[in-house]
Amino acid sequence: MATFKAIRIDKADKGQTAQLADFDESELMEGDVTVRVAWSTVNYKDGLAVTGKAPVVRRFPMIPGIDLAGTVEASSHPQWKAGDQVILNGWGVGETHLGGYAQRARLKGDWLVPLPAGMGAREAMAIGTAGYTAMLAIMALERHGIAPARGPVVVTGAAGGVGSVAIAILSKLGYHVVASTGRPQETDYLKKLGAAEVIDRAELTGPLRPLAKERWSGGVDSVGSLTLANVLSMTKYGGAISACGLAGGMDLPASVAPFILRAVSLLGIDSVMCPQEIRREAWRRLASDLDRGKLEALTTEVPLAEVLSVAPSIVEGRVRGRIVVKIG
Q1: How confident is the model at residue 142 (pLDDT cuts 50, 70, 90)?
Q2: How far, in Å, CA of 161 to CA of 37, rounded?
Q3: Contact 125/39 with Cβ under 8 angstroms?
Q4: CATH 3.40.50.720, domain 128-268, yes or no
Q5: What's the rounded Cα separation, in Å, for the pair 70 and 83?
Q6: Is residue 1 scored above 90 in pLDDT?
Q7: What pLDDT score was predicted for residue 211?
Q8: What is the pLDDT of residues 74-93, one digit of tens each?
Q9: What is the mean predicted confidence (pLDDT) over 252-266?
């Protein structure tokens, strides 16, 4: 039987083990498309999966990696043929279905999207689920009517993957971006991405006031918990916040005051099971609305084996921007 290199997670007496190993092709799960994986990436959820800090992995053995980009090797799906360049984000891959930290993946063709024209596989993974989620969040704000003329927008967790890409896109679209971070040493980095202002996250983690001074018309939040509650209390009348992460916690100790007194909307963003129509539109927008120079500047590259050492860093909030993983 043929084997290939993969990060393999196995159940242990206490928790789990993760290692770079030879994976037998016969262990691949069902699917109608086989992909030769060239690139993947490290998202916050990947860090949780590899370290076991949260119960992301739902079956064993598991190959983690919720993203991949590569070339179709074989397909019985009517939409895909050998040689097609494809992207995979979400759908439970890396959680319940063997994922992207491997030289080969067998997937359902209905999960795949085409690599946008003019975009390389490495660029697609520099974007990854984090950047794709940022685009979904921005599209939701646009649908709600949050345009640059409405006033500033806030981005929390600004130096992380979602935050970095969100700032780059929003600034290119003409928004005045307020970046919130707990790492003041990243101020220059955030301003180069396009942030007009950088604030300390402490401004959003203090005692909650049901209604605070109005500061922004909208925002992208990847932190959750008290940060999101404070962001909502500071949102202008008729504004909206896209919520897409939980780096600060799953709770939301908020008041209903912003919703019933300022008509503020909280927009939930899910990237995992997002319908294909919206998913493809997000990738088309990423191809046109994200400055490729800024994308490269916020990206670091590692080989597959280094995923094991990078995973704890992203969970602990020590990673800046995006990390691409060279698989092939």
Answers
A1: very high
A2: 22
A3: yes
A4: yes
A5: 9
A6: no
A7: 97
A8: 999 999 999 999 999 999 99
A9: 98
Asked if pLDDT for residue 197 goes beyond 80, the answer is: yes
Residue 4: the pLDDT is 96
The domain limits of the chain are 3-115+298-326, 128-268
Q: Is 325 exposed, middle or buried (0-12, 13-18, 19+ CB in 10 A)?
A: buried
Q: Which two tokens stand for residue 162?
A: 């979602």
- The answer to whether the CB of 117 falls within 8 A of the CB of 124 is no
Q: State which H helix or E strand residue 129 sits in.
A: helix 121-143
Specify whether the CB–CB gap between 99 and 68 falls below 8 A. Answer: yes
CATH superfamily of domain region 3-115+298-326: Medium-chain alcohol dehydrogenases, catalytic domain (3.90.180.10)
- What does the block give as tokens for 312? 């704890």
Pairing mode of beta strands 16-24, 299-303? unpaired
The pLDDT of residue 16 is above 60: yes
What mean pLDDT do residues 54-66 have?
95
From residue 194, alpha-carbon distances to 18, 243, 302 in Å are 38, 21, 26
Extract the tokens encoding 25: 């092709």
Mean pLDDT for all residues in the chain:
96
Q: Is the peptide bond before 210 cis (omega within 30 degrees of 0)?
A: no
Q: Over 161-226, what HEC string results?
A: HHHHHHHHHHHHCCCCEEEEECCHHHHHHHHHHCCCEEEEHHHHCCCCCCCCCCCEEEEEECCEHH
